[in-house]
């Protein structure tokens, strides 16, 4: 079933859109089934669960951390994580840079925006994110690479509200790209869109979608 679901999702993706298969809470066997049909990028949100899967599964898997990350957990994932999508503070950015230096790695990160209506969602407001970038401290960090932005839309059936938030994310990405990353081709990732709204997200400029239940059930 997983392999069929995965193929169906792939057929709906625009060219150049990266698919992160959200495997959190699903067993190693489920990841293996998706891996067997060519999926290599998986998203996890808890360090302990991720550690077990990393140790059990093929080493060419690219693991993306997509949950709230505490600074004291960074050291455990820094040796192998492909991307941390939920960087929501300068403090966390500094710790990722520090642990990346210890491992001799440059770790890709995304800046997490809070654009949704729910207070429970994490992330920086656009103004806080701009203040972080304008501060410029990140430019001295040699063991992180800022690849773009990520966000989660409001949990609502109001399609127009979701579209509005996605377009805000797209416009914010474009503004930040022009101001701080105009000559940086690595700043290229707009990560928004999940199982229920990734088709709309693509229409609104997303090139990096995180799909879980549509694949794993």
Can you walk through the features of this model?
- With 217 residues, the chain is an alpha/beta fold.
- 41% of the residues lie in helices and 18% in strands.
- It contains nine helices and eight strands.
- The protein has helices at 2-11, 28-36, 47-56, 74-77, 90-103, 126-135, 159-180, 198-203, 213-216, and strands spanning 18-22, 41-44, 62-65, 83-87, 107-113, 144-151, 189-191, 208-211.
- Strands 7-6-5-4-3-2-1-8 form an eight-stranded parallel sheet.
- Strand 3, helix 4 (74-77) and strand 4 form a beta-alpha-beta unit.
- The longest helix has 22 residues, at 159-180.
- The radius of gyration is 17 Å and the shape is globular.
Which characteristics define this entry?
single chain, 217 residues, 8-stranded parallel beta sheet, 18% strand
Record the SSE blueprint.
Layout: H1 2-11, E1 18-22, H2 28-36, E2 41-44, H3 47-56, E3 62-65, H4 74-77, E4 83-87, H5 90-103, E5 107-113, H6 126-135, E6 144-151, H7 159-180, E7 189-191, H8 198-203, E8 208-211, H9 213-216
Parallel strand pairs: 1-2, 1-8, 2-3, 3-4, 4-5, 5-6, 6-7
In short:
The chain has 9 helices and 8 strands. It has helices at residues 2-11, 28-36, 47-56, 74-77, 90-103, 126-135, 159-180, 198-203, 213-216; strands at residues 18-22, 41-44, 62-65, 83-87, 107-113, 144-151, 189-191, 208-211.
Number of strands: 8
Overall helicity: 40-55%
Strand order of the largest sheet: 7-6-5-4-3-2-1-8
Structural class: alpha/beta
The largest β sheet comes out as: 8 strands, parallel
Q: How many whole angstroms does the radius of gyration measure? A: 17 Å
Percent of residues in β-strands: 15-25%
Shape by Cα distribution: globular
**What separation lies between the terminal Cα atoms?**
9 Å
**Which ranges are low-confidence, i.e. pLDDT below 50, for 5 or more consecutive residues?**
none
What is the string of SSEs from the N terminus onward? HEHEHEHEHEHEHEHEH
| Tally of alpha and pi helices | 9
Tell me, rounded to a whole number, the average pLDDT. 97
């Amino acid at each position: 079933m997983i392999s069929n679901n995965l193929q169906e999702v792939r057929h709906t993706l625009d060219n150049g859109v990266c698919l992160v298969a959200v495997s959190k809470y699903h067993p190693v066997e489920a990841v293996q089934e998706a891996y067997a049909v060519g999926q290599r990028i998986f998203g996890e949100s808890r360090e302990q669960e991720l550690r077990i899967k990393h140790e059990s599964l093929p080493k060419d898997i690219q693991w993306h951390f997509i949950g709230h990350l505490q600074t004291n957990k960074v050291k455990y994932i820094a040796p192998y994580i492909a991307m941390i999508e939920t960087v929501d503070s300068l403090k966390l950015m500094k710790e990722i840079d520090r642990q990346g230096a210890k491992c001799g790695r440059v770790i890709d990160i995304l800046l997490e925006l809070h654009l949704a209506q729910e207070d429970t969602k994490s992330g920086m407001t656009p103004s806080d994110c701009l203040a972080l970038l304008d501060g410029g401290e990140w430019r001295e960090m040699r063991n992180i690479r800022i690849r773009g932005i990520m966000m989660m839309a409001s949990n609502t059936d109001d399609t127009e509200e979701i579209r509005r938030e996605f377009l805000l994310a797209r416009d914010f990405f474009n503004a930040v790209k022009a101001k701080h990353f105009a000559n940086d081709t690595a700043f290229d990732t707009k990560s928004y869109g999940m199982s229920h709204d990734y088709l709309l997200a693509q229409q609104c400029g997303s090139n990096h979608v995180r799909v879980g239940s549509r694949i794993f059930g």
